[in-house]
Amino acid sequence: MFNWTVIIPTFLAASVEWVEAFTIVLAVSLTIGWRAAAGAAVTALVVLAGMTAATGGALSLGMDLSWLQLVIGVFLLLFGVRWLAKAIARQLSRGDWRASWTIAFKGVLLEGLEVWLIVVALGINGAWASSAGAAIAALLVVTAAGLMVRAPLARVPENTMKFAVGAMIVSFGTYWTLEGIGGPTVWPGADWSLLGLVVFYAAGGMVLASVLRRPARLGETPKLGETL
């Protein structure tokens, strides 16, 4: 019998994590395509399922995700800043494909581990079916809703997509890096802080792009483009 006192909080909490994971996959898909980004996401889910099957409940014992958040956060920052800079300079190399795939894989794996901890915490009193079922249902709902935005995104100019990729990846990188160093309490508003970070980096990128266009109008080459 389903335990709705477990299903509802698990579904809501897992939905937040899956939305973050899908946002990363969405951002990466704008650069390397939906098929490759989805492949990275599915691979991460398969790895997570394998870890779950191999360790069972032991996966939750003493698990501290702060080190993983720090490593992935720094990784996202390094590549996210590079993407954002190249979008501002209106160019992006195909050589970023492998890094893009890795970002999608690691992002989904980290968010999936956080969902696993939620499932374990809320299902520890014997309500495993309810907590696991709610987490899977949340994944399906978020994925179905996210796929609905594919058509509108196809009409967005290419460089705007690349700019969005950089802003979102840098935001996740900043969030996970500082959370890995200082813990969850470092961000007021928890996951909602991501929205503020995206706005901050997007606004900063637009200001920088405007500044770089000034020498271009005078016949000079923006120095940022020369270094990429």
| Tally of helical runs | 9
User: What radius of gyration results from the CA coordinates?
Assistant: 19 Å
Please state roughly what percent of the residues sit in beta strands, choosing from under 5%, 5-15%, 15-25%, 25-35%, 35-45% or over 45%: under 5%
Percent of residues in helices comes to over 70%
Shape: globular
Characterize the biggest β-sheet.
none
Mind explaining what this structure looks like?
With 228 residues, the protein is mainly alpha-helical. It has one domain (4-226). Helix content is 79%, strand content 0%. The chain has nine helices and no strands. Helix 1 (4-32) packs antiparallel against helix 4 and helix 3 (66-88) runs antiparallel to helix 7 (158-182). The protein is globular and about 65 Å long. Residues 224-228 have low confidence and may be disordered.
